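Customer escalation, tier 2.

The customer says the design service returned an amino acid string that "doesn't look like it belongs to this structure." They asked us to rerun it and document both sides in this ticket. The original structure tokens are below, unchanged.
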């Protein structure tokens, strides 16, 4: 009897197409150094895309602290997408959770499972000036993503009572086709990482509710009030210099003064 040969095994899954490796840093209220090297400033509150790609989703929640004069800082970062098999990792200044369960509840500590390694310790790079001498609480995340290095995310936690709680974030990853977000589109051209251009591409009201990794959505724009994120970068720099001087040399000028200067002019800001 003629033997029928067994079916050929299926071809191996194609290797994901990854580009160059790059670093994006988010610090302060919040300032961003994009993968392509441009500094962009985002001052409004809400939940926004830091990185949005086919497999990596990173969102930041931006809110003010008591010392930022109404300007937002990064309060929490949420990580998800198929790189985490649809599960969610949430890191804030004091708490962390994975798939809804608390992790990293002691210091130092770590959390490990297949494809994911997380450490909390006092080692790592400072991502913001003025932090020397302060106790470091740094979360190090490594996610297997098909590259040799893995997706690496560092979260520096700050909980000084005089400042309020916030975090800094550094993302190290290989470029993905079609990615975008406040870290830029990682296409080798820093010009299109300008804040206004990014907002045109990914939207002006934050992450849509149906795509949110967080449980709740922060209202983005107060009624009948311009959004500071619509102020061009050069004019915003002028506004910051003017408002710092007007308000007695404050490091962080008030949101009200910045908005008045950007959208009504220096003369109107002077009367505020």
């Amino acid at each position: 009897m003629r033997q029928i040969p067994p079916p050929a095994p299926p071809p191996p899954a194609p290797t994901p197409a990854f580009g160059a490796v790059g670093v994006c840093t988010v610090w302060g209220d919040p300032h961003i150094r994009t993968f392509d090297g441009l500094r962009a400033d985002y001052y409004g509150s809400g939940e926004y895309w830091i990185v949005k790609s086919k497999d990596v989703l990173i969102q930041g929640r931006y809110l003010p602290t008591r010392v930022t004069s109404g300007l937002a800082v990064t309060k929490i970062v949420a990580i998800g997408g198929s790189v985490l098999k649809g599960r969610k990792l949430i890191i804030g200044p004091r708490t962390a959770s994975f798939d809804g369960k608390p992790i990293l509840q002691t210091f130092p500590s770590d959390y490990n499972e297949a494809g994911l390694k997380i450490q909390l310790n006092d080692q790592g790079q400072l991502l913001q000036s003025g932090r020397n001498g302060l106790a470091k609480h740094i979360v190090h995340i490594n996610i297997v993503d098909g590259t040799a290095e893995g997706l690496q995310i560092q979260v520096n936690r700050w909980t000084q009572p005089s400042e309020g709680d916030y975090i800094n974030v550094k993302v190290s990853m290989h470029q993905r086709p079609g990615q975008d977000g406040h870290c830029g589109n990682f296409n080798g051209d820093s010009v299109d990482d300008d804040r206004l251009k990014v907002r045109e591409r990914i939207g002006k009201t934050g992450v849509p509710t149906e795509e949110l990794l967080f449980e709740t959505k922060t209202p983005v724009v107060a009624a009948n009030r311009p959004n500071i994120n619509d102020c061009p970068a050069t004019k915003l720099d002028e506004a910051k210099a003017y408002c710092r001087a007007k308000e007695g040399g404050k490091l962080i000028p008030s949101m009200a003064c910045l908005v008045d200067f950007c959208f009504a002019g220096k003369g109107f800001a002077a009367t505020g």
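Tier 2 assessment: The sequence is consistent with the input. The first strand starts at residue 21 and ends at 27. The mean pLDDT is 91. Sent an explanation to the customer and offered a walkthrough call.
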